Amino acid sequence: MHTHDLAEQPVERHPVILDLEQRLTASKLPEAASRFLRKHILFAYPRTLWVRWSVNVREPDAAEDIGGRHNLDPKKTGKFLSEWLKEKLEIKNIVFDLTGVTIFDSQKLAGLFAATTADADGAKYYVCSGEIARSLENMPGIDAGAIYASEKQMVNHLRDVPSSQRCVVPLPASVDLLSFDRALRRYASVKKIRNRDVVALDMEAVTTISFDAHCMFSPIIHWLGHRYGILATVCNVSKRIGKDIKKHGSLRPMRSHLIQTEQEHLWRDEPPISRNKLGNAGPLALHTFTYFERDEIHKTWMTRMDEMIRYYDEWFASVGGIHKGLGQARADQMVSTTHWLRGTIKELVDNVVYHAGSVEKNGKRNIALGYIAMEVDPLPKEGLHIYVGDTGMGLAAGLARSYDMKPPTDAQAVAMAMSLAEQLDQRTQSEDPWGGRGLEHAGALLRRLKGRISIRTGGAIANFAPEKGRAAIKIRNNLYYVQGTHIHIRIPSKWKPLSSKRTPL
Amino acid sequence: MIPASPLQLQLPPTRDGVLSVIFQDKSDPEEIPSFKRAIDGRLSSDKQIRKVSFDLSRIDPEMNAAGRLMDLACATYRQWRLQVEVKMPADIYQILHEIEGKDRVPALTSKPPLIVRGVTVLIVEPLSATSVEDEAKTAAEVAGTENAVTEAESKTILCCRGKVRAVDGSLITVSLFAEEEEIVGEFDRSQFSRPDLKPGMVFEYQARIKAPGVTTVSIDLLTPQYPTDEEILDASEALPVDFSKF
Known about the structure:
The structure holds two protein chains of two kinds. By secondary structure, chain A is of the alpha/beta class. Helices cover 38% and strands 18% of the residues of chain A.
């Protein structure tokens, strides 16, 4: 599951507990009990296993569910859970949620609670109220302070993470893709982050954040949440940087993963409530989308792109090499330029929609979460920045599924990203036999616009200048691992800086 | 399931043993297998068909899946061993050539015919919205239905007075007076309705969008008189340029 899950409530099928299915199949637990556990074990942020004890009697399989619960052997179940969690550093707490329970078998539950052990740095909690809470308080080994009256209170307690449990990542003064990456590798390595509950991006020293770096905050927070079951926060944010984060909507998609964060940083007026001097031509803040939102997301970015072209018409004309004038030929040139741009973005968004997730043999589609953001900065050396990414299966895994080839490494995958048409004959017939030109199509259009493109997947990134050829001009490997594929495009300004030389009067 | 866009594919009645497969508007990549089923259905039910013509001249230049449609034509050729041709605009073909390389897709400048994996490619002009509209109207008249009429939105993006400033062979330098501003530009003589152009002539300039990506410019000469620029500016009720609709 790669879609954006709300982190403020227990989550079903979270990646951290996806191996439960395999474990249960291999276990000696009775089938009815396994079925109950499969359905009633959830994940809660941060690093918490959530066992929901109640059965919804309105569900069609309620009778089976109740049967499964009765069949649970407390000791065997407790042992199974304890052994599973012992190897799992991503989980340290256990919550037994007894909300809505109407049949209370105190002996069975006491046995289960006693047999299930939390991590040394974690705890066991109970969610219940009224009579059940009073019964629990009297059970041996249960701390009354570990009993919470509601799911909301419990979640709030879990999210109230002490400073000692933060993995602090001090960000440099100038945050761009590479400096952000260096900071993560240094301060949030697997060793440092896996027994923490929160990654804290410390922005005390930050004075600038590049567009590309803005776009990576949410995908990285999403990935860390899925990989380690942790939450995130940002701290020591200056007013100016906070405003910049707000403007780009960099944290907004992952707002439910953030704790102890000023909500002001997350807020982004999409669509704008107040029109500033740019009207709607300002940055397209980071938006998320899935397979089911294809039409909506195309409409969203196209509308913003139209606004940008209208406001920055001279900049776009200069990028398209269109001289001043209003003849039919010039109008056609402008049409071509905007077609190329729209064609490029459309291709990348469709790539996410159709290929970032996977389709199982039974036709079930695993949905990936896509991201898009755009900004025009007409200043010399800047330009039109576009980001389209996803936290899906990643380029290497995608290529291994779609082509008859040895599964490539991340570095090999990004290296061949812009020359996949050479592999068209190796495309498998089972996995979308008609595709395989998306990235190259984007490359062909970028060649006309003299754009630059960087493709990142897993721990590798490759930079391309399509007008110079299909081969990458630079490949970096062993970067901080980030789930999915992330594409950054820049169409550089053609405007030269005005001379700052002053001549005496 | 994402709903398919309407009018992605048309299969008109077979004429002289030729099945025309007309793609138009946006092509949804996920719809390709259903396109194939529809084409295969026609080919298996009509044994008189000796040629299949894929017409890509009306597809949306931005929202198309031309590579996949080309694959579909090649798969049709391989499966049915019929003569298959693909009509496509030059710019779309050129991009396919750049993507796939000359071994799979010959260069535009190659000696005709252009053959891609057994399929003949004919380079055609992209069909303008006007002709789509006209054809749709004709189809409606023939069929006697109103539903077949495609509503083509036509919007004026710039309408203002202009003045010929200089004439140099076929190059005509003009001023356009829009939004109380004078914009200097260059036109080609062929864009004017009469050849005897002289500096000072006043005309009405109109740029209209007929369909996404299709803009037409019309220039109507109004007068050979020579009013002052101020007079023209005062009289102008220009609409602003709206490049977003290009």
